[in-house]
Design brief:
Elements: E1 7-10, H1 19-41, H2 45-57, H3 65-77, H4 83-98, H5 110-119, E2 123-127, H6 132-140, E3 153-155, H7 165-175, E4 182-186, H8 189-197, E5 201-205, E6 216-218
Parallel strand pairs: 1-2, 1-4, 2-3, 4-5, 5-6
Helix pairs in contact: 1-3, 1-4, 2-4, 4-6, 7-8
């Protein structure tokens, strides 16, 4: 890192949050609850907007509820990063968090590292394919307390897809920072390629063991050297 790191842009899934929690708890919950949730909340503004956007993404169709459910389930199985799907998933998870049915999981080094980075004056941000609501739920409901207070803002796919350099340029414009002073942390090399193309510093968080990468590689947050 040639420039001092002034801000850190963090992917949650796989870097801070174990993928086993996402794929083993959150995703099955959303899949099982999707149909009933849509039926119960179809007139809620957030759900209504998400369903309308689902139809637009399909080509401008006015979908019936059962058609929207089938499409969203298909996207879920395909691991599509469609914004309306992520919106509805986040709303389902909020319901379960509020009921105490689930609690978030983080890797053991994450909470302390985030606190240390924030205390050093670095600005912290999340950029995830999950909705802003889902990001805040993951960071706000666990044994470590509410970590959302450490973050200045949360970005999702409404600003662009994570494999597109333009998305990272747009984020840096929002932060009003030179891209080279922003460090992107992710477990996904393709996303880091896009961030690097936009001029950001990048580090691959290799939680599953050593990895070959064009990016700097760290096994966890605690091992990351941010310099002075």
């Amino acid at each position: 890192m040639n420039e001092p790191v002034r801000a850190i842009l963090i992917e949650l899934e796989g870097a801070a949050v174990p993928m086993a929690f996402v794929t083993g708890t959150l995703m099955p919950l959303a899949q099982a609850r999707l149909g009933a949730f849509i039926a119960e909340h179809a007139s809620d503004p957030d759900v209504e907007d998400a369903l309308e956007e689902t139809g637009r993404l399909l080509g401008g169709f006015d979908l019936k509820l059962e058609e929207a459910e089938a499409l969203l389930l298909r996207w879920m199985k395909q691991n599509r990063k469609a914004t309306p799907l992520k919106t509805i998933q986040g709303l389902i998870w909020r319901e379960s968090y509020a009921a105490g049915a689930i609690k978030s999981e983080l890797y053991p080094d994450v909470a302390e590292s985030l606190g240390s980075w924030a205390a050093s004056g670095r600005r912290l941000f999340v950029y995830s394919s999950n909705s802003r609501l889902a990001q805040q739920l993951m960071l706000g409901h666990g044994a470590w307390g509410d970590l959302t207070r450490l973050f200045e803002d949360f970005f999702d796919t409404s600003i662009g897809q994570k494999i597109e350099p333009a998305s990272y340029r747009a984020i840096c414009e929002r932060l009003d920072l030179p891209s080279e002073t922003v460090l992107a942390l992710s477990g996904d090399g393709e996303e880091l390629d896009a961030a690097q193309s936009a001029g950001l510093a990048t580090t691959l968080i290799a939680r599953e063991g050593p990895a070959d990468s064009r990016h700097t590689v760290c096994p966890d947050f605690a091992s990351l050297n941010l310099g002075s």
